[in-house]
Design brief:
The chain is of the alpha/beta class. It has six helices and eleven strands. It has a nine-stranded mixed sheet with strand order 9-8-7-10-6-1-4-5-11, sandwiched between helices. The protein has a two-stranded antiparallel sheet with strand order 2-3. The structure holds flavin-adenine dinucleotide.
């Protein structure tokens, strides 16, 4: 089985500063680590390879310094690691990131894509399902266990608010995983020695066959209107009910009413 795991580098502190003018995270002021959920994604990829054979490739889209994080995954035992890095990608939002990752996944080739549940900085949980949407493959989110797996299909347990859903899908497919799925291994001594000499491949936008008009800040559909630290107001929560589309319309109207969208 050809497994591709997408991982993201995130700031290693929870009190990262926010630029007061733009509301953007000041990423350069903090150290960086692998997004914690992505450790579980890597581990699950390695376990599937141990069971079914094949290879595990790790992809990240980020700045050149993300190579160090990729080396950690080599130490854990992945076969190859690729950095997607290009100035044209700077400022990409989740939709543009997903587009670039989908092109890179196509180039790498895959039967199964594994993502973390969400990144602890951006926190949207968009990138896994959005990448799957670009690739026109099924995506199963919040996976806490892979019950059965073969080269052609997988059956998983998805964590839900009120229990567990058991879902089966044919491959190729994408999953996003939660911490309950496994206990990530540490880097082995042999792995660390390989990682020391290992040089991750670097792919540009051109290398992945990406279209410049789909990526970068000016081509990203998201606009950050305002960022601030949230405060809790007990008793102020309102639960929306109805069909998904109806809930989305109500939510959109409320956000507009609050003045965040013109
Ligand atoms: C207008 C705008 C501009 C932005 N500009 C930048 C910028 O210049 N630099 C920057 O770092 N961020 C930037 N961001 C934030 C960036 O869009 C998100 O951090 C990123 O797309 C991932 O979204 P998320 O953190 O919500 O990840 P989630 O969707 O919560 O992540 C889910 C999973 O997707 C995978 N994943 C997420 N991101 C990546 C990645 N980059 N590579 C591989 N796998 C990944 C991981 O498996 C992760 O666990 C910008 C956001 C906006 C709205």
């Amino acid at each position: 089985m050809k497994i591709v795991v997408c991982i993201k580098q995130v700031p290693d502190t929870t009190d990262i500063k926010v630029d007061p003018d733009t509301g953007a995270l000041k990423r350069e002021t903090a150290g960086t680590v692998m997004n914690p959920f992505d450790m579980y994604a890597v581990e699950e990829g390695l376990r599937l390879r141990e069971k079914l054979g094949g290879t595990v490739t790790v992809l990240t889209m980020g700045p050149p310094m993300a190579k160090e994080m990729l080396k950690v995954t080599i130490g854990m035992g992945v076969d190859e690691a690729v950095l997607i890095s290009d100035k044209k990608l700077a400022g990409s939002d989740t939709w543009a990131t997903a587009y670039a990752l989908s092109k890179a996944c196509e180039k790498a080739g895959f039967d199964l894509l594994i993502f973390g549940k969400q990144a602890v900085d951006g926190d949207t949980a968009h990138v896994g399902p959005s990448t799957a949407t670009y690739l026109k493959i099924p995506s199963l989110t919040w996976v806490k266990k892979i019950r059965e797996s073969s080269d052609t299909e997988i059956t998983v347990e998805k964590m839900m608010e009120d229990g567990v859903d058991v879902v089966k899908t044919k491959l190729p497919a994408a999953i996003t995983v939660v911490k309950e799925i496994n206990e990530p291994r540490l880097e082995s001594l042999k792995g660390k020695m390989r990682a020391k000499k290992y040089e991750p491949a670097v792919w540009s936008l051109e290398d992945i066959g990406g279209d410049e008009s789909m990526v970068g800040l000016k081509n990203s559909p998201t606009r950050v209107a305002k960022s601030w630290s949230a405060t809790r107001q007990p008793g102020k929560a309102e639960m929306l009910s109805g069909e998904n589309e109806q809930i989305a319309d109500t939510l959109f109207a409320k956000i507009k009413e609050l003045g965040f969208i013109k």
